[in-house]
Amino acid sequence: MTRFLYNPSIKEVYNLILRFQNCELENNLARPQFRLGSSKYDEHIFNNNYKFKKIGKGSFGTVYLARCKHSGDKVAIKSVKIERYCLAQSRKIEREKSAWTSASSHPHIVTLISFFKIKTRYCFVSEYVDGQDLTTYIRRKKFLKEAEAKILAAQVASAITFIHNKGIIHRDISSKNIMIDRTKGAQLIDFGVCTYERNPKNYCGTLFYLCPEILEEEPYGKVIYSNLIESFHAYCDWWAFGIVLYEILIGKTPLAIYLKKFNIDNMDLTSLIKIAKKVYKGQLQYPKRLSMNAVDIIENLLQKDPNKRLQEGDIRIHRFFADVPWPESVHT
Question: Would you call 237 a catalytic residue per the annotation?
């Protein structure tokens, strides 16, 4: 699957070069030291008391399992290499830390425990998820029966609603960023490309889960005022949730099913985006085993017109979730 931040034009490349040149000047400013407060999880304590094992690597960092030599306690560490001479990255890291901290009280979002910075790395310390990502989980089972799918989907939807109420757009909802813990169920992870921006337009996320607005380079959020109260709809996250729900119930994303007949290793990103646009203009196919409620919620989440797409309040009361308890956050 292809994950990317943007598909730059010549003008954007030029701006990136200018930004890199300006970063050398920005580096003269003092870099902030972010910390969640006093914690037993810190650099020197880790070096002396923990054993490390790499358990994952992505485009934005490496994830390690850290096991305490004395107690056996386990935590996960996301390690991000510091880009020298650029303050822009530290701002992005601060945004991720702020959003993750704000969201950590939800039972279906992995809790951020601590944060520290060493000479070459930013380190996020979080709860360790005893399980596997949803992609692997689905691959092992081929697809999930509706009874199990409803429970996991309700957990993920409640987590998405929670972060939206905090003013956060996740922007990378995908089966790779949902972990399945053996006791806690679904756990949303990775706030690396999240934003507080109200009307974003840039490419961002994983290709197989991108909404039509992103593919067409249009805004994928909307601010709404009602009785002088500001709220916003993060259309892209609910489209991605619809793709995840389709994947859970059928076994693969719509784009993955379509691309089975192609050799995507030889395709560039532009070609893949063109195919994605074509797929989403057509009618999706559903197996006969799916209930009418399952098909209905997917169809309404994957509305091409974002204004017609299901939103927070509609999802919770949809008939698909009628017999499933809705998870609640610890603190709102």
Answer: no
306, 222 contact by CB (below 8 A): yes
User: Could you give phi then psi for residue 189, rounded to 5 degrees?
Assistant: -130, 175
Cβ atoms 98, 35 nearer than 8 A: no
Token readout for 316 is: 């919770």
d(CA 203, CA 7) in angstroms, rounded, equals: 7
Catalytic residue among 172, 237, 265, 268: 172
What tokens does 98 get? 């702020």
Contacts of residue 100, defined as CB under 8 A and 6 or more positions apart, other chains included, come to: 112, 124, 126, 191
Query: Pairing state of beta strands 112-117 and 121-127?
Result: antiparallel
Could you tell me the two tokens for 216?
């067409």
Q: Which long-range contacts (CB under 8 A, 24 or more apart) does 222-225 make?
A: 222/306, 222/307, 223/198, 223/199
Buried b (16+ CB within 10 A) or exposed e, 267-295: eeeeebbebbeebbeeebeeeeebeeebb
Q: What confidence tier does 43 reach under pLDDT thresholds 50, 70, 90?
A: low
- 245: which strand partners? none
Task: State the DSSP H helix or E strand holding residue 80, giving kind and residue range, or none if neither.
Answer: strand 74-81
CA 227 to chain centre: 31
pTM: 0.82
Buried b (16+ CB within 10 A) or exposed e, 106-133: bbbbbbbbbbbbeeebbbbbbbbbebeb
At 21 the pLDDT is 35
Task: Tell me what pLDDT residue 231 has.
Answer: 58
- Residues with Cβ within 8 Å of residue 18, at least 6 apart in sequence: none
Structure tokens at 209: 């889960």
Residue 289 in this model has a pLDDT that exceeds 90: yes
- The tens digit of pLDDT for each residue in 50-98 reads 888 898 887 678 999 988 888 888 999 999 998 876 778 888 999 999 9
- Angle between helix 235-250 and 134-141 (nearest 10): 30
